[in-house]
Amino acid sequence: MNPKEYKYTKDHEWILPEAGGRGKIGITEYAQSQLGDIVYLDLPAPGKTVTQHKKMGEIESVKAVSDLFAPASGTVIEINQNAINDPSLVNKDPYGAGWLIRIRLSKPEELDALMSSEDYEKQLT
Amino acid sequence: MRPYYLLPDISQPDKTACTLPPPDVPLAELPPADLLRADLPLPEVSEVDLVRYFTNLSQLNYAVDTGFYPLGSCTMKYNPKWHEDVANLDGFTALHPLQSAESVQGALKLMVELQNYLSEITGMDATSLAPMAGAQGEFANMLMIRACLAARGEKRTKVLVPDTAHGTNPATAAMCGYEVSTLPSDAHGNVDMKKLDAMMDDSVAALTLTMPTTLGLFDPQIEDISRIVHERGGLLCGDGANLNSILGKVKFGDLGFDCVQLNLHKTFSTPHGGGGPGSGPVCVKSILKDYLPTPWAIRTGQGYEFIAPPRSIGRLGAGYGNFGAMVKAYAYIRTLGAEGLKAVSEDAVTSANYIKEKLKSTYHLPYDRTCMHEVVLSGKRQKMKGIKALDIAKRLLDYGFHPPTMYFPLVVEEALMIEPTETESKATIDAFIEAMRAIAREVEEKPELLHSAPHITPVRRLDEATAARKPDLRWQMKSQR
Amino acid sequence: MQLPYLPNTDADRQAMLRDIGVESADELFHDVPAKFLNVPFHLPAPLSELELKAELSHLAQRNASLNDYACFLGAGFYHHFIPSVVRHITGRSEFYTAYTPYQPEASQGTLQAIYEYQSLICQLTGMEVSNAGMYDGSTATAEAALMACRITQKGKIAVLSTVNPAYREVVGTYLSGRSIPLVNVNADVKGLPADCAALIVQQPNYFGYFEDLSSCVKKAHESGALLIVIADPISLGMFKSPGEYGADIAVAEGQALGNPVGFGGPGLGIFACRKDYLRQMPGRIVGRTVDAEGKTGYVLTLTTREQFIRRERATSNITTNESLVALAATVYLAAMGRQGLRRVAELCYHKAHYAAEAIARLKGYSLAFNQPFFKEFVVRCPVSPEQINKALFKAKIIGGLDISHTIENAMLFCVTEMNSRQEIDRLVKVLGAFQP
After folding, report:
1. Which one of C319, C396, C421 makes the best mutation probe of the B interface by having the most chain B beta carbons within 10 Å?
2. Which of B193, B196, B463, C422 shows the smallest number of beta carbons within 10 Å?
3. CATH domain C70-79+337-432 topology
4. Rounded Cα gap, residues B137 and B316, in angstroms
5. Which range marks the domain in which residue B204 is found?
6. Whole-structure pTM over 0.90, yes or no?
């Protein structure tokens, strides 16, 4: 259920390493189901730096606001405009079309400390 | 009939619902054109259409006058009618706040006497009627505490707020520049004294405590709580939203509170108005008296007047607070007297405990102990069958009842907070209990009825996600030029 | 004796207590330490409705009401005409005894009415979005200032010295919570400090005169500050709206729209702003949506800005606002409509100018300012305003505000559609007695 190529944080976010020292970031299936209908994304703009485990933005559902924490450090190079225009994408396809931001990793070794999909699933129960 | 139209739909040029006289003075020269607006794009409706529209709208509402609101922490009691009439007397409504004090002695007398009654009821030394709602009362309390500690030369940066607290408590502390530390509750629903002991130090300005708590429980540790807070130089700030449970029986001042804000639109029967006007007076011990908001009504040898307390936190509004609500609350207290107020809390607490006894086998009761004027149940048993508190609430609408408060306090899973108030008869309460039992049976036998509820209200369940994703917050009318 | 508003009889009480398993209600208070329970309360003995009505009527008669006295006092609270239709709607108990519309299926009346209110306020002020209202004009201004700080991330607020002093005090109270300085500036100020989040101006200003709002907008925006305009809603029947000037946030006291002066409360804090700032706007907002059957319905929306979700990170701690007062404003605006509100404004304008000219012709009296005004103006008097007001009161007139601490022997007069020509002539006659 949680894709094996992704790495996970205890804050229910994932990061997918991509070629060229980049990472795609989003929230997990568990996170979107807990939040309910997502209505608004407050994401860091391209060019901003993010620091691992520090707050980088917010995600709002009808009934709740959740902080977004950066799974890894780096510089934001892209944000998912489709998800901004239609936040329901994050609910419908959190690992695919509902991705949030793409960063250029400044410390790729940070990913080693993150959880695998099995470890994430284990700590969910 | 549900009106499926809006004002622009019933608008036509030259319609109006008001007649005005022509000018009885010579016309002055108009100001320069660049100050004037070209057109005023407002609808034009006839009086009969206007009245039909709003009358039909009103009939879509549930209200205290149409049914029971078991809303925990809101105290939706009956709003006496003659209070409305007396508050509408011209001698009260047609007064300008800036008229001379000599010309409004009746109004000032009412304010001073109400202040005195509220001080007596709460066991405090002084009351200000300035705050325009409970949240503003909380703001006033927090500012006064801050000013008092600053005058002592103290720099305390934190406020302790229980995990059961209403959202206004931490929001208010933040408005005053305080860092909020959450104080956990123990397994009985009381303050965790070990945690309080660890967290209460000289960096803490105050503990904000709702008493009884938002779980509807009286914390018997209150003397120790007050002692610890005060011994370590802090103040005990009360949220008086639940006063209906101890009205005429217990005084906040005796319990150790330094200040408390009240809600006239809860405890003192002034109407909720669909979301206000409210009124949130603050009652303080003499330690905070000098800091009360400006202006403050007092009695002198010559009569009544407004003054500015010597170290006032300042003005909270351009007027004196919600005078309309003050008249109604005054009338309420004079109607009931001390014995009547006592009967209010005794009946409110009796009814809540009655509901608790009758429903505790049907719904999970997180704290199986005597409650005060409200009881918190949990829908967690029903959750195991895929039914949320929200679904139970929506199904209650089909039984003709407004739902209880849901999902508050946050420490209870699938919380349903029920407050009957003293103005509901046993017959109404029994009908409510029956409805809750019937719904619990439906959870077992026909859960789809809950998922799709409500069915008989003017609208079915609404799409709140789209409302937030694609906000449609107004209609637009073009100018006619 | 059956107590009022308590419907249960002793038999009902006994039945409930029996089911609970106790003998008396007092047993249910066992968590309260005994020494705190059932202490004496010294309050007047209860009275019946008949007795209390008499007593309160008597108390009301001890006040000089605007029904018996002509009113030429304004300064933020205004005596305007209230068509009967307003009270008939707000007096419906389905509206006034309803709760906040958190359960939208049971509150469509309140919610749709608020949607109408929001729309009408936008049309009136020329702004793009409005909330459901705040406590009063002064706190709406204070919340606008805090909002500007959030949006611009700057920590200072500038306010023109011609803004209502009570409003400046309230803004100061709110800003002091977050240690944000409030700076008074004059209208001719060249530019604003770079760390200014907003400039607050009142139009017409406290003294009744029109500011050069175009210049204010320019000054504010040039320094990266927002422009907050405090408007007079009745003036907007005739005069250019804050939106047309390019204001970022428009606030106002809504009492004048269908609500009595009420000794200062309840009021209504009108609050509207640009669409871009929607998520930073405090207070409740109603949105239109559809239900499970595709039918139109209304809900409270964007609730994640508010205290019950965001708690210490909320845009404001406001919960209960002034819903019924907003309903009165809605009915008033709908009743008056496009032509009616303009005519009210014109009546105020012409009557105020007639009064001003007549007073200015009196010896010893002069108009303090030479700028365009709406319904309020400042008069320099030959003797102290205190003396004049005493004489006026004897003639059953409530005179203008004594502002002699700001301008020597000056009074701030207000004239509305409620002042007949005869009343104005009587005012001028009494003032005339003080000619040197």
Report:
1. C319
2. C422
3. Aspartate Aminotransferase, domain 1 (3.90.1150)
4. 9
5. 82-335
6. yes
- One-character DSSP codes across C381-398: -SS-HHHHHHHHHHTTEE
Contacts of A59 (CB under 8 A, 6+ apart): A27, A35, A38, A40, A41, A42, A65, A66, A68, A90
Asked if C125 is an interface residue toward chain B (Cβ–Cβ < 8 A), one would say: no
Beta-carbon contacts of residue A20 (< 8 Å; ≥ 6 apart):
A104
Residues 6+ apart with CB under 8 A from C43: B117, B120, B121, B333, B337, B338, B341
Phi, psi at residue B337, to the nearest 5°? 65, 180
In contact, B168 and B135? CB cutoff 8 Å: yes
Largest CA-CA distance found in chain B, in angstroms, rounded: 78
Distance CA B481, CA C427 (A): 40
The answer to whether B464 contacts A62, with C-beta atoms less than 8 Å apart, is yes
Question: Which is nearest to B341 in space by CA: B254, B246, B212?
Answer: B246
pLDDT digits 0-9 by tens, B368-405: 999 999 999 999 999 999 999 999 999 999 999 999 99
Residue C187: which pLDDT band, with cuts at 50, 70 and 90? Answer: confident
Show the beta-strand stretches assigned E in C93-225: 129-130, 156-160, 182-185, 196-203
Do residues B48 and B88 share a domain?
no
Q: Supply the CATH classification number for the domain C85-331.
A: 3.40.640.10
Contact A40 B465 (CB under 8 A): no
Name, in order, each residue with C-beta under 8 angstroms of B450's C-beta and a sequence gap of 6 or more: B387, B391, B392, B394, B395, B439, B442, B443
Tokens (6 digits) for B345: 């809390």
Please give the pLDDT value at position B480: 60
Residue B92 to residue B88: CA distance in whole angstroms: 7
Contact C303 A60 (CB under 8 A): no
B contacts of C17 (beta carbons < 8 Å): 350
Please choose, from the candidates B400, B397, B404, B436, the residue with its C-alpha nearest in 3D space to the C-alpha of residue B420.
B404
Q: Do C310 and A40 touch (CB under 8 A)?
A: no
Query: CATH classification of A7-124 is 3.20.20.70, yes or no?
Result: no
Q: Which residues of A touch B413 (CB under 8 A)?
A: none
Q: What is the pLDDT of residues B285-331, one digit of tens each?
A: 999 999 999 999 999 999 999 999 999 999 999 999 999 999 999 99
Distance from CA of B307 to the nearest CA of A (A): 44
Pairing type for strands B405-406 and C366-367 reads unpaired
| Beta pairing class for C410-414 and C376-380 | antiparallel
* B91 contacts B340 by C-beta, under 8 angstroms: no
Determine the Cα–Cα distance for residues C81 and C258; give it in Å rounded to an integer: 7
* Residue in this structure with the two tokens 């208010």, named with its chain if needed: B172
Interface with chain C: mutation pick from A37, A39, A60, A61, highest number of C CBs within 10 Å:
A60
> One-letter amino acid identity for C337?
G
> H or E segment at B173?
helix B168-175
Calpha distance C285→C300 (Å, rounded):
6
CA distance to partner chain B, nearest, from residue C224 (Å): 24
Provide ipTM, 2 decimals.
Answer: 0.96
**Do B25 and C424 form a contact (C-beta atoms < 8 A)?**
yes
CATH 3.90.1150.10 residue ranges of chain C are 70-79+337-432
Q: With beta carbons less than 8 A apart as the criterion, state whether C296 and C290 touch.
A: yes
Structure tokens at B255: 């319990």
How far apart (Å, rounded) are the C-alpha atoms in residues A12 and B39? Answer: 54
Contacting residues for C175 by C-beta, under 8 A, at least 6 apart: C142, C145, C146, C157, C181, C182
Q: Which helix (H) or strand (E) holds C15?
A: helix C10-20
